[in-house]
Amino acid sequence: MEKAGHARSRAAAEQGEAEEGEDPLDARIARTGCLEQHRQLQECMAERQDWRHCQEELRAFGACMARRQRGPGPARPTD
User: Fold this and answer.
1) I need a surface site. Which of 2, 39, 42, 43 has the fewest CB within 10 A?
2) Would you say the pTM of this structure is higher than 0.70?
3) Domain span at 44
4) How would you class 60 by CB atoms within 10 Å of its CB: exposed for 0-12, middle for 13-18, buried for 19 or more?
5) What angle do CA 58, 26, 20 make, to 5 degrees?
């Protein structure tokens, strides 16, 4: 079952939808700085109805999230 609001259209988001109604997953992704890549992936999947045709968008979103997860982080001790 799909979460309410997660698959909302970009137009709805751009029309000034109140943040109180924002999907929690979208809010978490927005904090990573990868929201635009996520929206592009969602749009591709909605248009093509097959994730296999959205590999470019999927890779871009995955790379963005990987960069955010690595981040500066604490220095690792060297042995």
Assistant:
1) 2
2) no
3) 24-70
4) middle
5) 165
